[in-house]
Design goal:
With 372 residues, the chain is an alpha+beta fold. It folds into 2 domains: 91 residues, no CATH class; 206 residues, MetI-like fold, CATH 1.10.3720.10. The protein contains 14 helices and 4 strands. Strands 1-2-3-4 form a 4-stranded antiparallel β-sheet. The longest helix is centred in the middle third of the chain and has 37 residues. The protein is elongated and about 85 Å long.
């Protein structure tokens, strides 16, 4: 009986805790129960860690050409059985040329072993463009090391994917930041003031939504001068994606503002002399910030896919910039894919990133209303 009483007491404490806990605490409790969302969140965090330390994680300079190692397949890593006993190592490569097709054929040289070490010296770089170094997270001290193979110029695909993740993931964040500003401000103004302001903003949204997305992206991207440097093109693509993506968020914000503008606490603040800007940005928008976070989280993979599509078609980022879409340009024909299937690995990375964001967004969407 005592055990039953203790169990009932703990359950009563948990029930009472629900009523005193903050909304963010309740959201976190519900979110962490969503297993797929937690897995997706950790994957997303891992990818953003990669974007922060891409120079260190990459084994080589992404634009370095190894002309003697063109279209090298991914090198297998061995853990046990080498001359060094236990520890990761790779074998050397021997190159033969097919006399009929002139295609290079690479085979493993079992007699040559290159141990894989952590924090080895390699190609020099500047971390975040500030700190000069040549220390890489892992690699070999000698011999070729191509974890995911090479492309048609002998560039290390693993290093290029690492840098491509940085560009594609950051474009998603920058594009969503612009989307958040445009969607929140214009949606809030439309819903709060109504009348002719609401009419004009909604007609603009409907006009943009009526235009097919891909032709609109292509038209705007074609307007970007080809002589622009990659950095300027990067920001131009981010702005182009946000100019199209803000409409859905603006409609969500407008609907919430129409619901809240007649609330009692808004009327009381208005009578107390609060300005319109104060009411919108300090009282009304924070009231449904959880929904905005969910909407933004679900829109990031859309931004990443949009950039990938534009770069794949040659309308977005262009070499020497490295993004996942740029890397997929080499896998545009069936013959290349059949001979060098590892060139499709950037597509697998995109799939994992988008799936992780969707899992995380689903968990946030369920947790946004913690009282259900």
């Amino acid at each position: 009986m005592a055990t039953i009483a203790v169990g009932k007491g703990r359950r009563r404490e948990r029930e009472e805790d629900v009523f005193v806990a903050t909304q963010w605490t309740l959201m976190w409790r519900k979110f962490r129960k969503h297993k797929l969302a937690m897995v997706g969140t950790w994957i997303v965090i891992l990818f953003y860690v990669v974007t922060l330390f891409a120079e260190v994680i990459a084994t080589q300079d992404p634009i370095k050409r190894n002309t003697e190692f063109i279209y090298v397949p991914p090198q297998p890593i061995f853990l046990i059985g080498g001359a060094h006993g236990f520890g990761p190592y790779i074998n050397g490569l021997t190159v033969e040329e097919d006399p009929r097709t002139w295609r290079k054929i690479y085979t493993l040289d079992k007699a040559v072993e290159h141990p894989i070490r952590f924090f080895v010296k390699g190609d020099p770089y500047k971390l975040w463009g500030i700190f000069a170094s040549d220390i890489h997270l892992f690699g070999t001290e000698s011999g070729p090391f191509f974890l995911l193979g090479t492309d048609d110029s002998g560039r290390d695909l693993f290093s290029r994917i690492i840098y491509g993740i940085r560009i594609s993931m950051s474009i998603g964040l920058v594009g969503v930041a612009f989307t958040f500003i445009l969607g929140s401000v214009l949606g809030a103004i439309s819903g709060y003031y109504g009348g002719i302001v609401d009419f004009v903003i909604q007609r603009v949204i409907e006009f943009i939504l009526c235009i097919p997305a891909i032709p609109l992206w292509m038209a705007l991207s074609a307007a970007v001068p080809k002589e622009w440097p990659s950095t300027r093109v990067y920001f131009a693509i981010s702005i182009i994606l946000s100019l199209i993506g803000w409409c859905g968020l603006a409609r969500v914000v407008r609907g919430k503002m129409l619901e809240l503008r007649q609330a009692d606490f808004i009327s009381a603040s208005r009578l107390a002399g609060a300005s319109d800007a104060w009411l919108i940005f300090d009282h009304m928008l924070p009231g449904f910030i959880s929904y905005l976070i969910v909407s933004l989280t679900l829109s990031i993979p859309g931004m990443i896919l949009a950039e990938t599509s534009l770069s794949f078609l040659g309308l977005g980022l262009r070499p020497p910039a490295v993004s996942l879409g740029v890397l997929l340009q080499q896998a545009q024909n069936v013959r290349t894919i059949s001979l060098y299937p590892w060139l499709m690995i950037p597509g697998l990375v995109i799939f994992i990133v988008v799936l992780a964001f969707n899992f995380m967004g689903d968990g946030l969407r369920d947790a946004a209303d913690p009282y259900k």
